[in-house]
Amino acid sequence: MAKPKPAPRRPARRPTSTTARLAQAESDAFCEARKHYQAGQAGHVADDSLRPAPAPEVTEDEKLLQFPAADAGDFTHTDTWRVLRIMGEFIEGFDTLAGIDEAVTIFGSARVTPDDPSYRAAEELGFRLARAKFAVITGGGPGIMEAGNRGAQRGGGRSIGCNIELPFEQKPNPYIDTLVSFRYFLVRRTMFIKYSSAFVIFPGGFGTLDEMFEALTLIQTGKIYHFPVVLFGRAYWSGLLDWMRGPMLAEGKIAPADLDLMVPTDDIGEVVRLVVDTCAAQGKAIRARAHEWLAGGRRKPGTSGRRKGR
Q: If pLDDT is split at 50, 70 and 90, which confidence band does 224 have?
């Protein structure tokens, strides 16, 4: 008896609405690009000079920022769970870093080597901050981050790394006492802001500038109380500062007082003194507000009893 012929496969139904078609096209393009990348046929996708290692399939940030798939049910389910995962990262970060009292975050290039003057300066700064009883927080990777953690550990202070999943592997440096790993930049950035008393920005690239401008924006807009943002290396930052004092200020894009949010210096001792003095002043202001509250006083609407919105 002849076997019945299998029914012809029906072609997959294509989305009909404009939004669904765009979503499907975006999803198809993404999958195609990923196949080319895996086959070694794609162009420059990630900066391999930072960490020459094979990429994972897709990072969590990459998944989060994709255009949604055409299947609305699957999209809703996927992003719902992604939000829960983000919440989990926040909880893990808060639990791990909750005991920090005063800390300074050091940013800078991942590309510098131990023989670079910036590396040596960051290590010395980490050492002096540890001696001044400050924890040191970095992004947990190589270069300036490694130098800051190394100095903190050498100084007997708490050395903290907030590592991030990247398309290329970023191994935590070996000088970290407390390590927290994140999938999402938004969670990691919150930890830097929440637990830092100051930022010290060493010469770096896009990631360094991203963190610097994030802090400046939050201070400028009053989302957090002012805390020091130190630009270490006058020669490196001079061009950026000249541009801010020039077109940005002249065209009214920033106010003159905004330039005072940054402190350029080449002096490690000045950085430590600024951090210590600022934290002492912040502590005094917090105690004064606490006494006012206990005495039954009232603050102006919109003011906070903490130095930052923790």
A: confident
